[in-house]
């Protein structure tokens, strides 16, 4: 699971604030929230200090029971990274769920990096729709989120929420998206400042709860005056109550008359502070720079060792200290109180302000909480230290996919400090990943000029090697291959490709086929992309990047492309080369697509036993690493193999393990699994259910611009419509598939559908030939006829092996030998070992063992020597020469 290592900080963010014993229960507002919670969204909006968070916490506390789920998230400035924002929403849900449900949501958090927001939100909505309890997601302090992308996605999410999911928001400002459509539908409610103001009765209850601990008497007139002058401002009343403990009511009331809230608050904070012991004042001023803290963090910034005692005293004094967990280990100050203190600290001693941030940064870094450490050292303007922290931390943040966070840190540092060449290059990489190509290109050009002026050195070589990687990523997005080749030819041969940030950057966290990722151009195939891919991998290998993930992913994309073009030998050769790299074993995003491609190649020869063995090996690797998402993709592919073998019962078992049902709304994040379910439904003659799934999935594939997926969906629609007697509609869908397929030279997408597709293509060709406008349809007719020829060759060769081998052995063996098995016999005769066979045939040693076992079974022998003798007796070896 991709997760930040600062678990206490995460827990503090997703825990409901602990209520104090003397809070005032506001019955009318509780009823309003309960009524509003029947719709999609309830918002509580008012300036600072009106008790928004407390109100929502009271409501949650009063409504919690077994039939409801409450997920709380306290937002802060760092949550303006969309990946972080949605990941924390998922974490907050996970803490509220049980019975295994939390694991489904954790899988959503892991899919965030590299996934479009639309795909993620649809997947989140799908999982929420499967919950059976009323679920309330509370987002506290929404005003701190200023990223328009998050605002847009949040509005989309709220609009499509299932009826039993409700969102509650608190904010100092109006919501950043329109709620008019929900208000018209009575799906949105708002509690505003006028409703949050304390009434005279609530003021009386609150002040008399304070009075009960003092010998002071507060008259009804004084209560009315206080309510009037503070205008029901809760924080003003709380500050006044603290001041009452050391000043008379008349003195306090005099200072709250006629002032605005901020200045009244500032005065009252000063009044309260002045009555505290000097040690406590210093403690408050030094710790106010911490957004969340425990006693250890307080010890660090105060340079004391008894902070836990001071925190206990602040709790006793009810001094704006808010516990963030039930154990009273983590706290924060009331936001407004902290702002007053920070303002005072900065005015009185700016150098102390920076020093305290530096101390906080050091403490968090020492404890491994690098996000917090970086924020503090940047505030301290310790930019060299910030650069050092970031250099050690960036790989972890990159894995989390929080590019907006990285960009924010880099921009902060570079605005006041000249970045090192290495961090400047990393910033260029982040710009590439976020789609800011023009700026990335300019940065790379500047860095290339810097490198050109550097004397030969190991650092220069490392920089040029890393620049080759960043330029390689840029070229796959802007298509400027000429500039890439010009750069690659101009750099030194002895560059050092050992930077782990770039060398091991993983491009695939969830797709079973690389060709359907951005690295695989979303399924686009052309002779140009083949030429570029081959040149690209050649250059990378020549410069020492042959085991880098970028090199292997491009190669895997080519391998899958060759399979699609029906160039099976080319595909098999590349698969073997990829399998020789250790990185292909260590990286599931590469291993799973590689094994699926190898299994497809085996199935194309009719070697289903081998294909299943290959899938078994990959599944064991995924299980050993507890990567449930990859296990599901492999089970979906195994179901496809069983369907090709017409083994419906086994296919049904595999699909059942996927946990998807025909009646569920399909989401694109599970596209491969859903299309597998559709294939099963087709074999079960359940065409309406299958077509419904495809109709809902197709627009999502179009949104993601997934060519391969659109072709597969259209093919399945064509087969299903024809199967249920709607031949005309079937032809229309086939036309869609052919139009896209012809632009990319797709072959196996049609060939692998078997005789039904062959017949459908034959009918389609006849329809084209009967049309008058042959010139307009000429290219498409040529394509359809080419597919027909491929089918003829495929049928003639047979899926069990070559025609020659079948003819030679059919009368003497129970099952004909395939071309691969004949090659193995020849290699056995030459004395080749299993490892040498694997290298020669571009297969893994495990796959060779399976092939040999199947060969022995066919020959009815058990050893190599017996196999050679039997083959010679049958004349097989002579024939295979």
From TrEMBL:
Alphabetized SMART domains for the sequence: HTH_LUXR (SM00421)
SUPFAM superfamilies: C-terminal effector domain of the bipartite response regulators, P-loop containing nucleoside triphosphate hydrolases, TPR-like
Pfam families reported for this sequence: GerE, TPR_MalT, WHD_MalT
Recorded GO MF terms: DNA binding
Domain named HTH luxR-type: residues: 810-875
Gene3D superfamilies (UniProt xref): P-loop containing nucleotide triphosphate hydrolases (3.40.50.300), Tetratricopeptide repeat domain (1.25.40.10), Winged helix-like DNA-binding domain superfamily/Winged helix DNA-binding domain (1.10.10.10)
One GO term of the biological process aspect: regulation of DNA-templated transcription
Presence of keyword Transcription: yes
TM region(s), chain numbering: none
Keyword terms: DNA-binding, Transcription, Transcription regulation
InterPro entries assigned: P-loop_NTPase (IPR027417), Sig_transdc_resp-reg_C-effctor (IPR016032), TPR-like_helical_dom_sf (IPR011990), TPR_MalT (IPR041617), Tscrpt_reg_LuxR_C (IPR000792), WH-like_DNA-bd_sf (IPR036388), WHD_MalT (IPR059106)
Domain of life: Bacteria
Protein name: LuxR family transcriptional regulator
Organism field: Paenibacillus lemnae
